[in-house]
Amino acid sequence: MTMQNVGRPTRPDAETSAQGFTSLAGGRGLLQDEPLIFELGGWSKTGVDLPAASADASDLAGLTREAVALPGLSEPEAVRHYVRLSQKNHAIDLALYPLGSCTMKHNPRLNEKAARLAGFSDIHPLQPVSTVQGALALMDRLAHWLKTLTGMPAVALSPKAGAHGELCGLLCIKAAHEAAGQGHRRTVLVPTSAHGTNPATAAFVGYAVQEIAQTEDGRVDLADLESKLGPDVAAIMVTNPNTCGLFERDIIEIAKLTHAAGAYFYCDGANFNAIVGRVRPGDLGVDAMHINLHKTFSTPHGGGGPGAGPVVLSEALAPFAPAPWVVSGSDGLRLAEEATGPAAQAFGRMSAFHGQMGMFVRAYAYMLSHGADGLRQVAEDAVLNANYVKARLCDVMSPAFPDGPCMHEALFDDAWLEGTGVSTLDFAKAMIDEGFHPMTMYFPLVVHGAMLIEPTETESKAELDRFCEALRALAVAAKGNDKDRFKGAPHLAPLRRLDETLAARKPKLAWKPDPAGGA
Ligand SMILES: *Cc1c(COP(=O)(O)O)cnc(C)c1O
Predict the structure, then answer these.
(1) Minimum CA distance residue for ligand 1 atom 3
(2) Predicted confidence (pLDDT) at residue 12 exceeds the cutoff of 70
(3) pTM of this prediction exceeds 0.70
């Protein structure tokens, strides 16, 4: 078996590495193995000295204090535990993170600096409104630019993720239909390539979901859409650019057909990064669209922080927007918590307060530091980078849609792996041994063994070349019968191939003391 001479078996039972070194103590290359915090063996210590509690049962209706079996670690032990865990995490600050549909781009530190300003980070939603004028002004400016960039008249800032934004948008649509006596519309149309959150959101709101077929070239099948648009359809949910990394060329026609049938057009805006500054969804006939601030506007996401999913709304849906929003009066800015009129807050609110302030600040700092021209270049460079990856790999891997350029993602199928005995999963795991995080796998579902690569605009040509060279070498190895390298991969990660299905289906979410272990 050939293996790269890099990496570090960090388990005592791991295979001997290429250098003939086996770790004796569970660590190597200055990286340590790390058990669960409960397994570190500290039960008799505490990091702080608190006076022993005098159990006073009378105050607590007879409830007495018991030992709660928290791990007992000193401060340095606790700090080391979490630092070791953090070193096992992949992060955009470590290397390229090519997860398609996730827009894992660099998070500029300027955003972090702005978000940590005390006037934004140390305030409370219930403090006097005269003391948070700056924060309200920022929300107002952010709303202004989100509306300007999308060409939409209204925005709800409070949804806390893309999926939460979808929920907000569909609740607005439902409320608008009900207000118009169209509450009988019970179906939402979703293309087969859609992100799983789309049908899930529609079902959550109580709609029946019907799929729209896809054409050979990866776009919405207009004829199929037309045949399904009937008096029962409440909305369509279309992603643009779609999850195959392709622009829906007939998007204006899709909007027209939808409106002619009395339905609303929900656009999943997760892929806005590919068109920001170049295309305004409002001009395309979109009625509602969420914007993942944590994707397009570069706020940390995944393990790195919470998301934010503001929803822009068309004229028709704007009256149904959930509170709050910023209004200006003679005594300054305040949040309007209630609207008046028949459509007011038809479905209540999306969250207790106003949304993710820290994300608002980061997104606004990102917008201002890029400017209108900079944001446009973001989209252009994101698309250029994806096309570069597609062009550099298309002779050794099989692009799912070889004709024409892609948008911000390069999508490959597994046709090129046929007969090699290597699967998409094996190939992705082998990338870990080469020092690269795998791309998105097996999504979208419409492409067999899909590999969806989104490099984003923040990767340099040198980094893209390194990535492409690694993938090319792996592709040659896969076709060259080097099956062992793939089947057991990753060989060099702290943990080997994990049973991901079992982990997803039967996650172990709570630690239980081992009865024999004396814990
Ligand atoms: C990321 C994504 C979502 C969901 O966004 P979250 O912020 O993760 O809830 C929805 N649709 C598409 C196409 C996405 O890529």
Answers:
(1) 162
(2) no
(3) yes
